[in-house]
Design brief:
Structural class: alpha+beta
Shape: globular
Number of helices: 2
Number of strands: 9
Low-confidence stretches: 1-9
Oligomer: single chain
Radius of gyration: 16 Å
Order of helices and strands: EEEEEEEEEHH
Amino acid sequence: MRRASGAAERVGATMAVTLRVPGYREFAFLATSVRVPTTEGESLLEPGGPDLRADLDVGVLTICSGSRGWPAAVHGGRVEATDDAVRVYADAIEFADRIDVSRARQAQADAAEKLRHDRDDTAAYDALRRANVRMAVAALAHPGPGAR
């Protein structure tokens, strides 16, 4: 994981975060950190950290404000970060509390079935990867039995 440097000196500092997703209005808010999945690995962005321009990968994006975090499934795009601002241009994003678990589970099963018949089906592999991320993120908002 790539970690932002210089953040320790700015404890409690915030940065402006902007989320842009096709078909939705732009969202802007303050955060203390943002964890993003990039094609180069996971990056933790904090106020005072180095600039970053990277392609987003399929994975979990987490926005934190103090001790509270909002996980989301992100499916590609770009991220740009400066000392005090983060701009996320996501192809698609689903926050944990908005994921339709039944639909994600069905997408997971459909993709797995396609891969069982054709292990070289890259579209099915990508669909399975997205469904797995959606299920993992949903589990963060809706923990199963026995979770605390």
